[in-house]
């Protein structure tokens, strides 16, 4: 499973080359597959992705707004450093917005999306029983969050939460090898997905808040 799973369930929505480039680069930057501080070469990326440089440049403009890259005149574009000091600010917003998204998703998600949530919950259980790596669990974590945000049915809420979750995930990936129980943290999502799929809005909101609080507490111990 990877971070493109959710978009693959919406084949009827055409995706531009710039959108494709944005999604792929965003996830590589989020998972620190493009290391913090690394220079971004648009020509090299265009060659790797098999697309033109214009979509790459459009994607990079969006990624700068997301605080994942930064551009300097006459120097170029670079992956941003992971800002550990942003943990408090990011967590403060997520404590308010994650429960809202979970609550809204539980009330408004269509049947097909509820089934998708149940399927994703089963996938998480299978991962926990196997020998999945921490990075695999983190990709699953991204899938869960993005599915819930989309199911909430509010584009502005979704955009904001995806951006915040990406920044939080970068912090986690920075210390991933030192974080105990990553699988257990991701497994918290099984209950959350099941609550949303069943329409238990208040329970879903509470579980979402617990999850964000648990993440912040874990990061503070490690950092």
From TrEMBL:
- InterPro entries tied to this protein: GntR_C, TF_FadR/GntR_C, Tscrpt_reg_HTH_GntR, WH-like_DNA-bd_sf, WH_DNA-bd_sf
> GO molecular-function annotation terms?
DNA binding; DNA-binding transcription factor activity
The alphabetical list of record keywords is: DNA-binding, Transcription, Transcription regulation
Gene3D superfamilies associated with the record: GntR ligand-binding domain-like, Winged helix-like DNA-binding domain superfamily/Winged helix DNA-binding domain
**Matching SUPFAM superfamilies, A to Z?**
GntR ligand-binding domain-like, Winged helix' DNA-binding domain
**In what residue span(s) does the HTH gntR-type domain sit?**
15-82
Membrane-spanning segments: none
Q: Which PANTHER family match?
A: GNTR FAMILY REGULATORY PROTEIN, TRANSCRIPTIONAL REGULATOR, GNTR FAMILY
Q: What is this protein called?
A: GntR family transcriptional regulator
Protein's organism: Kocuria rosea
